[in-house]
Amino acid sequence: MTRIEFQHGVEDILKVPHGSLKETDSRETVKTWSSFTDVDIVEFVESKFGVEAEADLMEAETFGDILRNLDSKGVFTG
Length: 78
Hints:
Number of domains: 1
Order of helices and strands: HHHH
Distance between the termini: 8 Å
Mean pLDDT: 93
Helix content: 40-55%
CATH class: Mainly Alpha
Largest sheet: none
Structural class: mainly alpha
Shape: globular
Radius of gyration: 11 Å
Low-confidence stretches: none
CATH topology: Non-ribosomal Peptide Synthetase Peptidyl Carrier Protein, Chain A
């Protein structure tokens, strides 16, 4: 899965248009992002990449934090 495919998946979870999520976006800037969607994002990460949600992923405050965490694990293709 590429970064853009991952972004689209998270945008689907958050119910926002594809391409609209910015690395600086957080629970404070996206109205549909809540603790409930946090669980959905973690499950999405686990199902797509087969990685366990670690504390640093669960504590990510922005979409960019999530991307950097996943980048450090080398999960994205292309």
